[in-house]
Amino acid sequence: MNQGVLLLHGVNxxxxxxxxxxxxxxxxxFGPVLNWSYRSWRPGGVAAIAERVAxxxxxxxxxxxxxxxLVGHSMGGLIHRRLLADGIIPGGGRYISLxxxxxxxxxxxxxxxxxxxxxxxxxxxxxLRPDCAFLKTLPLxxxxxxxxxxxxxxxxxxxxxxxxxxxxxxxxxxSAVFPGAASHRVKSLHISLPIIKETRRVAVQFLCDPGNG
Length: 213
What we know:
alpha/beta, Rossmann fold
């Protein structure tokens, strides 16, 4: 198939959460399948993380970064958006977010000023707040080439009753989907969303045939 995929995990999570999906993509004929780690607690926020990923991409592809499909869990989806907006990755590939807080996470807004939150999530955690400048100015991917997979109960109340509407216990469903993009709900908590078989099946299917998203 000769179509590359870049996988990026969520904040403070290991790349192992995307390893089953990486195996599924390789089995479906995609390649190279890049399942990379990053340090989310370092200074500079999501933009700085994207710069470090960009540097690694240029090293991986010295003759020019090719069109890549992008699959990101949580913050990983925001890093992908930054890479697309900066022109690091050429347009033309497909974009899949897994529980990405495209419009911020209520919990980050509530806890963003707490010292423990800042210690655990660093400056990147501030980029998850619904009112932050980073999200307000970050362009969305082309919706016709995008799929938003999100976790939830499918009811008015999600896994975390303290969060508004349906949610995966961390991110609200309304923030995990952006206008015009295809979407698919999986009954899953945020942390397990990338591992669930249904998530992996739908993701691989969309990359093989985006019309079935």
